[in-house]
Design goal:
Shape: flat
Number of domains: 2
CATH superfamily of the largest domain: MetI-like
Structural class: mainly alpha
CATH topology of the largest domain: MetI-like fold
CATH class of the largest domain: Mainly Alpha
Strand content: under 5%
Distance between the termini: 73 Å
Order of helices and strands: HHHHHHHHHHHHH
Largest sheet: none
Helix content: over 70%
Number of strands: 0
CATH architecture of the largest domain: Orthogonal Bundle
Mean pLDDT: 82
Low-confidence stretches: 11-24
């Protein structure tokens, strides 16, 4: 009797599940087609993404590569009209002419490096102290002062070059590299202070409080504990200060009167004219290539910190 009941139950179970099984087996090819379509769409999207990135990369890098390649043209090929895609021969003559121009290329590179180093040093020291103060200390008028500092970003620096010229002349710093570095530091400080305040805001206060409990003063906590944590922000502020001071032309052109103190952009502006007012394109391309190299090398070495520094403070801890 029990065997008969179990046999009947198996028959009923088989009958009840067979339609669902049949239905599931019918849907399987449809699900496989949908999965295959989704994979094709995903691969097409990835391919399109890399294609767009590749095209943009070529568009951005082509002018740099063309300048570097043209710098090895002979002066005649570099100034040919229409431009030659393939030179008659490669030559270092443009670099030799650049090296012998005026006081020598190394003099102008040294001037630019000196101004950039002083600008970066002063900017980092001041923006670190300012950003730390705005982030960690509470005092009357803190937000108002911070907004006033940021508001200076809206003032075109070209409009205040004449007052700066008079001020530097009164301080007997007009025409000096240190005076020019002071002007560049003034231009860079608002953004750098903003950057460092965001970097300090992203660090949990508990870390600083633990260092204070261990006996550190505020300056010791800043130097020992906080600075390593905000290193990406420091690198970002330093890179912006370096790029701005290395490539800036107008302030250096107005504030520097002695040819021996010219920076690279001013020297290239004076060196671009050849005989009878014609532009010496080969010399210009050689100078541009030399000017690009320090910026490119620094960015490639520090790009990881640069990206992290830009997003610091986007999400507060």
């Amino acid at each position: 009797m029990s065997d008969a009941l179990r046999s009947a139950d198996r028959d009923l179970g088989t009958a009840s599940t067979s339609p669902a099984t049949a239905s599931g087996s019918g849907d399987l090819p449809v699900m496989q087609d949908r999965g295959r379509t989704a994979r094709i769409k995903a691969r097409a999207a990835v391919a399109l993404y890399y294609l767009v990135c590749g095209v943009l990369t070529v568009l951005f890098l082509f002018p740099i590569a063309w300048s570097a390649f043209t710098s090895f043209y002979s002066p005649a090929d570099a100034s040919a009209s229409p431009p030659k895609w393939i030179p008659s021969h490669l030559s270092f003559e443009n670099y030799f002419n650049l090296a012998s121009y005026g006081e020598g290329i190394w003099r102008y590179l040294g001037n630019s490096a000196s101004v950039a180093a002083m600008t970066v040093s002063m900017t980092l020291v001041l923006c670190t102290l300012g950003g730390y103060g705005f982030s960690r200390f509470r005092f009357r008028g803190r937000n108002v002062i911070f907004i006033v500092i940021l508001a200076t970003l809206m003032i075109p620096f070209q409009s205040i070059l004449n007052p700066l010229f008079v001020l530097l002349r009164w301080l007997h710093l007009q025409g000096t590299l240190f005076g020019l570095a002071l002007v560049y530091t003034t231009f860079q400080l608002p953004f750098a202070v903003f950057m460092m305040r965001n970097s300090f805001d992203s660090v949990p206060r508990e870390i600083e409080e633990a260092s204070l409990i261990d006996g550190c003063s505020s300056l010791q906590s800043l130097r020992i504990v906080m600075l390593p944590l905000v290193l990406p922000g420091l690198v970002t502020a330093g890179l912006f200060a370096f790029f701005g001071s290395w490539n800036e032309l107008l302030a250096a052109l107005i504030l520097l009167g002695d040819a021996r103190n010219y920076t690279m952009p001013v020297m290239l502006l004076n060196a671009q004219s050849g005989q009878l007012g014609a532009i010496d394109w080969g010399l210009m391309q050689a100078g541009i290539t030399l000017s690009i190299l320090p910026c490119a090398v620094l960015f490639l070495l520090l790009q990881r910190y640069y990206i992290n520094g830009l997003i610091a403070g986007a999400v507060k801890a």
